Recover the amino acids of this structure.
């Protein structure tokens, strides 16, 4: 579309703010100008007939690792944001465990510049906290940075914040949301020593959820929650993996009033410890995929609003890296292209409604991080949306994977519900299976 042009979408089933309704959407330039029925205006340049398909706001994924700079043999901002667009994710918030780490304002600016030049999706970058960068944190422009990311348990990139005084100072002094990876280091180390004593150098992958155990998760997340309560900090706990941790969160107040929030990721909802036998290290994540009972509790926690956000933790590694034996195989896997189709498949299985998917993956990340004018289908908001065909099936295969690493934990799986089109800032950037080469991406801005 040219700037100044008007797009009208007709025959859509619109999923937004707790409702599904038939209607039309009018888009002028990069914004939604009207939502209604039988909209008539002058100067329409394009009418898109959705033919009864569903339209959702573009997803906002608040936890991705796109590996640039420094780890570009695994992925780049360009390759992974392109896969995100094909998966209906129109905005992403990226993590600081790159090389160099995003722990200085200079590194943060450089990432933004690279995204401005190459990203296919709207972007923002979290700032990483370390044991010694409090001054940098306090000098940040909080209107530009979505949140602070702290690893309270080490994972890829070794960014552990393990000095309790520093941690307390950060919690006391920043107004930013503090997003945390919670796994207790000492517990993991002890469990690892025990596993080595039993198995030597040949630890089976099925030990992963016992090494990175429920206890390790609970100890760390309960300490983070206690510190947030003590200091009044705004805490967001990433990727919950256990039933036990759900007791730390509440669902009796609206998200806007919560000071402590929590998130669940696709892999912890899809896989369970029973899948290690078939999938091996391909489903090695930190925190680990746990039991079927944990998975069922996470679905319940999501539906009952103990969990506020659905994200991916998209974390690609090469096939060769993943094929190493347990102790050397890195944790993480790519997800942005398949997260929404997996959620739509879960909808067909009766696990979640379309309205809940939209609440947790579109609305709530926008509310939680104060993302300006996105995450909802609303007049005056940016026209980021996804057209989905709920009935269309899609088998995930090497040939249709867009990630630079070229593999997916869903390979061989048929997902029901496909992304037909993606509109980004008023432009079709994905249709007929192709991502447009010319990007319409913008930096996310924050309404604070
Ligand atoms: O499994 C994971 N992989 N968990 C993390 O926290 C980091 C991520 C990565 O960067 O590979």
């Amino acid at each position: 579309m040219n700037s100044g042009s008007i797009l009208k979408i007709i025959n859509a089933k619109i999923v937004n703010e707790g409702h599904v309704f038939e209607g039309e959407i009018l888009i002028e330039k990069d914004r939604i100008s009207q939502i209604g029925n039988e909209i008539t205006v002058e100067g329409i340049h394009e009418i898109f007939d959705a033919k009864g398909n569903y339209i959702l706001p573009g997803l906002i994924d608040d936890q991705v690792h796109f590996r640039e700079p420094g780890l570009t043999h695994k992925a780049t901002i360009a390759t992974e944001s392109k896969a995100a667009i094909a998966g209906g994710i129109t905005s992403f918030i990226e993590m600081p465990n790159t090389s160099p780490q995003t722990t200085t304002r200079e590194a943060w600016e450089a990432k933004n510049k690279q995204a401005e030049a190459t990203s296919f999706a709207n972007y923002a970058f979290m700032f990483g906290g370390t044991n010694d960068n409090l001054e940098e944190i306090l000098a940040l422009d909080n209107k530009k940075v979505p949140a602070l990311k702290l690893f309270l348990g080490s994972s890829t990139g070794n960014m552990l914040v393990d000095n309790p005084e520093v941690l307390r100072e950060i919690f006391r002094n920043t107004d930013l949301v503090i997003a945390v990876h919670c796994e207790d280091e000492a517990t993991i180390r002890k469990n690892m020593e025990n596993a080595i004593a039993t198995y030597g150098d040949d630890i089976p992958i099925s030990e992963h959820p016992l090494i990175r155990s429920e206890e390790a998760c609970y100890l760390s997340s309960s300490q983070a929650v206690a510190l947030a309560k003590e200091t009044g900090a705004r805490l967001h706990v990433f990727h919950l993996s256990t039933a036990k941790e759900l007791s730390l969160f509440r669902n009796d107040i609206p998200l806007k009033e919560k000071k402590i929030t929590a998130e669940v990721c696709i892999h912890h909802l899809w896989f369970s410890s029973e899948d290690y036998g078939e999938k091996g290290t391909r489903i090695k994540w930190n925190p680990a995929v746990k039991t079927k009972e944990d998975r069922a509790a996470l679905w319940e926690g999501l539906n009952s609003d103990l969990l506020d956000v659905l994200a991916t933790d998209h974390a690609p590694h090469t096939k060769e890296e993943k094929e190493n034996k347990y102790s050397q195989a890195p944790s993480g896997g790519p997800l942005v292209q398949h997260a929404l189709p997996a959620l739509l498949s879960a909808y067909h299985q009766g696990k979640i409604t379309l309205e809940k998917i939209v609440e947790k993956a579109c609305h709530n990340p926008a509310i939680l991080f104060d993302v300006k004018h996105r995450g909802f289908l609303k007049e005056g908001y940016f026209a980021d949306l996804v057209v989905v065909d709920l009935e269309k099936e899609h088998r995930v295969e090497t040939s249709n994977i867009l990630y630079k690493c070229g593999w997916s934990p869903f390979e061989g799986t048929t997902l029901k519900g496909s992304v037909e089109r993606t509109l980004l800032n008023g432009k079709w950037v994905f249709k007929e299976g192709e991502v447009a080469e010319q990007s319409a991406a913008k930096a996310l801005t924050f309404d604070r």
